[in-house]
Amino acid sequence: MQIIQNESLSAIKNKIRQATEQTVDSVVVERVDQIIAKVRENGDQALKDYSQSLDGVSLDDFLVDQAIIDQAYNQLDVGVRQALQAAAENIKSFHQRERAESFEDRTVAGVVRGTKVTPLARVGIYVPGGTAAYPSSVLMNAIPAKVAGVQEVIMVTPPQADGLNPAVLAAAKIAGIDRIYQIGGAQAVAALAYGTETVPQVDKITGPGNAYVAAAKRAVYGQVDIDMIAGPSEIGILADEDADPQALAADLLSQAEHDVNARAILITNSLSLAQEVSEAVECQLLTLPRQKIARQAIDHNGFIYLVETIDEMIALMNEVAPEHLEIQLKNPDSYLDRIENAGSVFLGKYTSEPLGDYFAGPNHILPTGGTARFSSPLGVWDFQKHIQYLSYDQMALQRDADAVIALANVEGLEGHARAIESRGTVND
């Protein structure tokens, strides 16, 4: 990995900002717009055509039969099934603490103010296919929705010539997903957003995908809600001279193996640690099964920043705003309050990032590309909406009428003022 040292903090910050800028490929956007238009026009037939041309799979029916799901669950390796069940329990217990509650306020005489919290009716979750299967993403998408009380969770995932991954199907059963459709890419997003003859329209689409899925989610936002525009995986690590370089290298590669565009960043104040981690990454790459992918990610988006102080380390990492942040410093808990921008934080040398990816409970669908500056992990709050309500009695309206009329008049909205005056509330 490249070690960057002897640069000013401002120069490093500029590099980080440039690296996290999200660009939109106009060719991808144009193609996605075409796909969405075709799905809106031709419905299921468009989905069948794209399944054949883009995925190389011919399908007459996109809906996965329950018997196939049950068979995948029953035949899955017992250890894997038990691990998925345990992970599901952890995810559920964590997200149950996120549920917002309705409230009502009657502290002002004659006035009732409140917010009613209600779940979305139907959501669609996108589970990637491609170079790897992600049963963990099934759990992370679906369980918060179920905890929120969503009535129906629809899952879409790209079709595979030899059938869907059994672990993905088993995870869907464990998570309580209601229906599974074998459709992927921008066409799946379009089907969920607008509905077809067989795929129902949803209220929200969540889950990561490739550039075409991200562009499609961006395009349909407003027709439906979305969770975020997910980019390549990221990990940032803060470490001092006492950290284990072999463990740090392994953690950096755990994200680099996701995607050739994944980002892996270590910030430290120890030159010896930086050098040891760089060497360990090279050594571990030699035996990594996904070496080709991880090598490209490390070569193009893997950096070790060497600075002088822990204060500078934290300031830089807040600029990175990483999806995953490991704090491998002495007394790591003491630095949590100083972290302003991160998707999920992992404290201490024993808290390796894959614990969050798979098992511990916090969600692994996280803001990327620096968007942790203003957005949050997927949670129950993504599947709930808030409806405000208000009630005034006659005396309360008479008390507040003059103030409302004055504000309406200053904004030049006479109709607003008249609506209040029509109730005989003007005080002479």
Automatic annotation (TrEMBL):
Task: Name the coenzymes or cofactors required.
Answer: Zn(2+)
Give the EC number. 1.1.1.23
Protein name listed in UniProt: Histidinol dehydrogenase
What does UniProt give as GO cellular component? cytosol
Q: Which PANTHER family match?
A: HISTIDINE BIOSYNTHESIS TRIFUNCTIONAL PROTEIN (PTHR21256:SF2), HISTIDINOL DEHYDROGENASE HDH (PTHR21256)
| Catalysed reaction, written as an equation | L-histidinol + 2 NAD(+) + H2O = L-histidine + 2 NADH + 3 H(+)
Q: Does the keyword Oxidoreductase apply?
A: yes
State a single Pfam family of this protein.
Answer: Histidinol_dh
Query: Which SUPFAM superfamilies has this protein been placed in?
Result: ALDH-like
In terms of Gene3D superfamilies, this protein maps to: 1.20.5.1300, Nitrogenase molybdenum iron protein domain
Q: Is Amino-acid biosynthesis given among the entry's keywords?
A: yes
Name of encoding gene: hisD
User: What pathway is it annotated to?
Assistant: Amino-acid biosynthesis; L-histidine biosynthesis; L-histidine from 5-phospho-alpha-D-ribose 1-diphosphate: step 9/9
Write down the InterPro entries for this protein, in alphabetical order: Ald_DH/histidinol_DH, Histidinol_DH_CS, Histidinol_DH_monofunct, Hstdl_DH
Q: Which family is annotated?
A: Belongs to the histidinol dehydrogenase family.
> What is a single molecular function from GO for this protein?
zinc ion binding
Q: Where is the active site?
A: 323-324
* Ligand binding (substrate): 233, 255, 258, 324, 357, 411, 416
Binding positions for NAD(+) per the UniProt entry: 126, 187, 210
GO biological process entries: L-histidine biosynthetic process
Residues annotated for Zn(2+) binding in this entry: 255, 258, 357, 416
Q: What this chain does, per the record?
A: Catalyzes the sequential NAD-dependent oxidations of L-histidinol to L-histidinaldehyde and then to L-histidine.
The entry's free-text remark on the cofactor is: Binds 1 zinc ion per subunit.
Q: Do you know which CDD domains this protein is assigned to?
A: Histidinol_dh
| Keywords annotated in UniProt | Amino-acid biosynthesis, Histidine biosynthesis, Metal-binding, NAD, Oxidoreductase, Zinc
